[in-house]
Amino acid sequence: MTNKEAKISTGGCYCGAVQYQVNGPLRGVVNCHCGQCTRLNGNYGSHSKALKIDITITKDEGLRWFQISDMARRGFCGICGSGLFWEQYHQDATGIIAGSLDRPTDLKTIGHIFVSDKSDFYEINDDIQQFQASSNGKLDGDFL
Known about the structure:
The protein is mainly beta. The protein contains 2 helices and 10 strands; from the N terminus they run H-E-E-E-H-E-E-E-E-E-E-E. The relative contact order is 0.24.
């Protein structure tokens, strides 16, 4: 087991009603520019990801799930409204809203996805890898 795999990360919602722990590696942050993320976040969504078996909900006073499509659901706090998770049903991993992680995260942004859908009020001005749609697992540490 490497040091990265042994890391324990924690996070939660704004009001503290939902808290979680990740006992394992986190994928680097991916900025998703799809229409769902834009509507949910007011801009693109920044997501890490971890294996479902590595995520433990340690406080669950407000966790709610909303089926966002036939293939995915999002987890959020029903008290303060904070976004926490995005989960595809057929994957063994769950997307974690990067801003919900306690700092320091020691994560770096590794890519942009669905850039063909991005809003017109900002530009992507970095040299990080971009994909017009999904990365389909082509980013380092991505779980399929």
